[in-house]
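Backbone-to-sequence.
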C-alpha cells in the first residue's frame, strides 16, 4: 500500500486542515482544507510558521477550505509578518473573510497556484 499523504499529514485525507506541502521554485506551498478555526488550526499554523522560517515566500493553497474564522485570519496575518504570504485559490468562504476584513489588501490573493508562484 503506497503512501498517498503529503508532508505533515496524519492519518489520511480527512486527518485535519493540513494537506500536501511542497516546494515550488523559491516558495513553499501549504495546502489547507476543511474548517479552519480555533480547534483545528494548530497543525496548519505550525506548518505555515515552519515554512516562513525557511522560505521567503509561503503560499497557502486554500481551495479546500470550507470555513474560516477570525482565528484563521489572525494566523494568516501573523505569518504575513514573517514571510511573503500568498493565498492561492481561496475558497469563497475564505475570500469573503479576507475581503470583509480588508486583509486582502495585506495578504496577496491569487486565483491559482501558477500565478502565486510566478510572481517571485
Amino acid at each position: 500500500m503506497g503512501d498517498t499523504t503529503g508532508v505533515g499529514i496524519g492519518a489520511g485525507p480527512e486527518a485535519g486542515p493540513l494537506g500536501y506541502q511542497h516546494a515550488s521554485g523559491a516558495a513553499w506551498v501549504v495546502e489547507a482544507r476543511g474548517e479552519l478555526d480555533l480547534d483545528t488550526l494548530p497543525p496548519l499554523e505550525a506548518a505555515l510558521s515552519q515554512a516562513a522560517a525557511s522560505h521567503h515566500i509561503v503560499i497557502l493553497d486554500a481551495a479546500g477550505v470550507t470555513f474560516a474564522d477570525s482565528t484563521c485570519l489572525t494566523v494568516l496575518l501573523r505569518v504575513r509578518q514573517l514571510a511573503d504570504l500568498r493565498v492561492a485559490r481561496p475558497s469563497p468562504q475564505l475570500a469573503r473573510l479576507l475581503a470583509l476584513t480588508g486583509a486582502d489588501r495585506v495578504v496577496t490573493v491569487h486565483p491559482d497556484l501558477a500565478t502565486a508562484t510566478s510572481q517571485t
